[in-house]
Specification:
Layout (H helix, E strand, L loop, with lengths): L3 H10 L4 H13 L5 H4 E4 L1 H16 L11 E5 L27 H9 L2 E6 L35 H8 L5 E5 L6 H6 L3 E4 L20 E5 L2 H11 L15 E5 L9 H16 L3 E5 L6 H5 L4 H17 L6 H9 L5 H21 L5 E5 L14 H13 L2 H6 L2 E6 L9 E6 L4 H15 L4
Parallel strand pairs: 2-3, 2-4, 7-8, 7-9
Antiparallel strand pairs: 1-3, 4-6, 5-6, 5-10, 9-11, 10-11
C-alpha cells in the first residue's frame, strides 16, 4: 500500500510519474473484486487520465502545481462540478439544474492538478452515520467483505475508495462524524478540521451550523497534505513529544456500551500512549450528558436540514430513502423559537466545555462504540435508528463544539477496524494534527 504522502514524496524525488498511481486507481475501480460499482456515482476516467499525463509533463519540467499534482483523489457526491447536477446520493436530484461553477474545494483540487477520479457514493443527503444507500447500492466494508458490513457514513464511498485503492485520498463532509465514522470502520484516518477553515461554497448543505469539509486517507501526513490543498490556509505541522502531552479522557457518555473489540482496542491504545509518556487524565465532563436533551427532538441538524428539504419532502416523500425522510421530518416539529433556544443552549454548552478542557492538549475517546455491523442486520427500522445513534454519539460531540478531530486506526492487525479519536477545541487544528502524528507513531508500535 502506497499512501498519498508516500506517493507525493516519490514524485518530488523524481522516482515515478503520477500516471502510475492514477492508472492503478482507475484499474482498481474496474476490478470486479473491488467495490468500484458501488463506490462511484460518477467516474471521470478519461479526465483523470489526461490530468495525470499533463501532470507528469509538469513534473518532468519541474513545474508541478502542487505536491499532489496528478495524483488520484475522489470527491463526495455533494460537491458541485460545473456542468453536472449535484445529486448528493439521491435520485431526487438527478434532473436538477446543472452546476454553473465548481465547488470551492473542487476548484482548489483542479488548481493543484489533482486527478479527480470520480464522485463517491454516500448516505442520501448525508443524513446518517451508517453509509447505507438504497438508490445506488451500499459499498461493502473492506473488512470481511464477504459478510457485507456497513462502510460507515455518510462519506461511505469516500472511505471504501481509499481502502480499495480507487484513490489515494478522498474529500468528504462531516456534520456529525461523516468523515471520522467511515474512516474508523474501514481502518483509515479521517480528519475533520474546524468548519471555518475550508470554504464550503458549492457544497450541498445538511446543517450549515454543523457542516464541515474533511478528508480521508491512510495516515495523518496524507490527511494533512490533502487538507493543505483545500484549506484557506495550510496547517503548520510540528514535531510533538508525547512525554509533554496531557490528554483528557471523558468518563461521561462516550465510553458507554463499547463492544468487546472496541473496548480491547481502546484500552490497548491507552496503554501504548502511557508507555510513550503521555499523561492521560480521567475527566468527568458531565456536560456531555446535556447533548441528550439538546438533540432530543432532532436538534439543530434536523431543524436546519428541514429548512432545505421541506418543499421536496412534502411534495415527493416517496423519492427519499425512508430512513432519511423520517429523520428529516423531525425538523418539521421545531419552530424558529425552538431553534433560537437550541442555538443559545449550544453556545452556553460550548463555553462550559471549553472551560473544562483548559490545560489539556486534546481529548481522547473511541471514535465509535461498535465495530461495523452487517448491512442486512439494519433492515429493521428500529435497529437502524439505534445503531445510527450509537455511531454518531461520540463524533457529534466535536461538531457541536465547533472543534476539530481526527480518527486514527488503533486495532491490532487482523482484527476488526477500530478508531481512536483525538479532538480539540475550535482553532486548535495545527496543534491537533501535530499531536496526531505522535499518537500515530505510538499506535504503530503495536505487536
Amino acid at each position: 500500500m502506497t499512501t498519498l504522502w508516500q506517493a507525493s514524496q516519490q514524485l518530488q524525488a523524481g522516482n515515478v510519474q503520477p500516471e502510475t498511481f492514477t492508472q492503478a486507481a482507475l484499474a482498481a475501480a474496474r476490478d470486479p473484486e473491488k467495490e468500484g460499482a458501488r463506490v462511484f456515482i460518477t467516474r471521470y476516467e478519461a479526465q483523470a487520465t489526461q490530468q495525470a499525463i499533463e501532470a507528469g509533463e509538469r513534473w518532468q519540467a519541474r513545474q508541478s502545481r502542487s505536491p499532489i499534482d496528478g495524483l488520484p483523489i475522489s470527491i463526495k457526491d455533494l460537491f458541485d462540478v460545473k456542468g453536472e447536477a449535484t445529486t448528493a446520493g439521491s435520485r431526487l436530484l438527478s434532473d436538477a439544474p446543472v452546476a454553473t461553477a465548481n465547488a470551492s474545494v473542487v476548484e482548489k483540487l483542479n488548481r493543484a492538478g489533482a486527478a479527480i477520479v470520480g464522485k463517491t457514493n454516500m448516505t442520501e443527503f448525508a443524513f446518517s452515520g451508517l453509509g447505507i444507500n438504497p438508490h445506488y447500492g451500499t459499498p461493502a466494508n473492506p473488512w470481511r467483505r464477504e459478510e457485507k458490513r456497513i462502510p460507515g457514513g455518510s462519506s461511505s464511498g469516500a472511505a471504501v475508495a481509499v481502502a480499495d485503492g480507487l484513490c489515494l485520498g478522498a474529500i468528504g463532509t462531516d456534520t456529525g462524524g461523516s468523515v471520522r465514522i467511515p474512516a474508523a470502520l474501514c481502518g483509515l484516518t479521517g480528519f475533520k478540521p474546524g468548519a471555518s477553515r475550508i470554504d464550503q461554497a458549492g457544497t450541498l448543505p445538511l446543517a450549515p451550523s454543523l457542516d464541515s469539509i474533511g478528508v480521508i486517507a491512510h495516515d495523518v501526513r496524507s490527511c494533512w497534505l490533502l487538507d493543505s490543498i483545500i484549506a484557506e490556509k495550510p496547517l503548520e505541522m510540528r514535531e510533538s513529544d508525547l512525554r509533554h502531552a496531557r490528554f483528557a479522557v471523558p468518563q461521561t457518555r462516550v465510553l458507554d456500551d463499547l463492544d468487546r473489540d472496541v473496548a480491547q482496542a481502546w484500552q490497548y491504545a491507552l496503554d501504548l500512549l502511557r508507555e510513550a509518556g503521555a499523561t492521560l487524565v480521567a475527566l468527568p465532563l458531565t456536560e456531555l450528558d446535556e447533548l441528550n436533551t439538546l438533540n432530543a427532538r432532532g436538534g439543530i441538524t434536523a431543524y436546519e436540514a428541514w429548512q432545505w428539504h421541506q418543499r421536496t419532502a412534502l411534495a415527493r416523500p416517496e423519492a427519499y430513502d425512508l430512513q432519511v425522510l423520517m429523520r428529516l421530518q423531525r425538523g418539521s416539529q421545531l419552530t424558529e423559537q425552538d431553534a433560537a433556544e437550541l442555538y443559545q443552549q449550544r453556545a452556553a454548552w460550548q463555553r462550559r466545555i471549553n472551560t473544562a478542557l483548559e490545560g489539556f492538549d486534546a481529548l481522547l475517546m473511541p471514535t465509535v462504540p461498535k465495530i461495523a455491523p452487517t448491512i442486512a442486520s439494519l433492515d429493521e427500522p428500529q435497529r437502524y435508528m439505534e445503531i445510527n445513534a450509537l455511531m454518531l454519539r461520540n463524533t457529534s460531540v466535536i461538531n457541536m463544539l465547533d472543534g476539530c478531530a481526527i480518527s486514527l486506526p488503533c486495532h491490532p492487525a487482523g482484527h476488526a477496524p477500530v478508531g481512536l479519536s483525538l479532538a480539540a477545541v475550535h482553532g486548535d487544528d495545527a496543534r491537533l494534527i501535530s499531536w496526531a502524528v505522535a499518537v500515530e507513531t505510538a499506535l504503530t508500535r503495536r505487536s
